[in-house]
Design brief:
four-stranded antiparallel beta sheet
């Protein structure tokens, strides 16, 4: 017996980040102190298709030889809250300090390798034989693109 999905049925969505609560209850029961609350999202990186190398006029090899690979992810919502006792020297002024960071989209690109051949293009003045040249070797810079933000508060 085969099972077929109905037309128009929803497909499972891929999560951008997985919410995680950090369990610190054991510290509170063991040491008897108030512990911070920590909740965040673990990023799930998604690897994109490598960027195609391009040929440039006058080069025998494409650039970059080792292609650049884009990786996207989402830095999940993060909340850290901790009790702040006796803020002004009085127990009535107990409060809580918080650090909140909203979810942020992040794009990275891996470095690529640029390699040049030790030969030039065929030289017409040398009967079509390529000349020797110093090969070039290098790496393209990795990129990180995003706009993370955070809000520090005291209640």
């Amino acid at each position: 017996m085969t099972c077929m999905a109905a037309a128009g049925a929803a497909t499972p969505a891929v999560a951008d980040s997985v919410p995680v609560g950090v369990p610190l209850d054991a510290v509170k029961t063991t040491l008897g102190v108030d512990t911070p609350r920590v909740a965040t999202g673990v990023p799930v990186p998604v690897v994109g298709a490598p960027e195609a190398p391009r040929f440039h006029k006058g080069d025998l090899l494409p650039n970059p030889v080792l292609p650049v690979v884009p990786i996207t992810t989402e830095l999940g919502d993060t909340l850290v809250g901790t009790p702040v006792p006796n803020l002004l020297g009085d127990p009535k002024t107990d409060g809580e300090g918080t650090l909140e960071a909203p979810a942020t989209r992040l794009l990275t690109r891996t470095p690529g390798a640029v390699v040049g051949a030790p030969l030039t293009m065929p030289d017409g003045s040398n009967y079509g034989i390529p000349n020797l040249t110093t090969p070039k070797l290098g790496l393209t810079a990795p990129e990180v693109i995003g706009t993370p933000a955070a809000l520090l508060g005291l209640r």
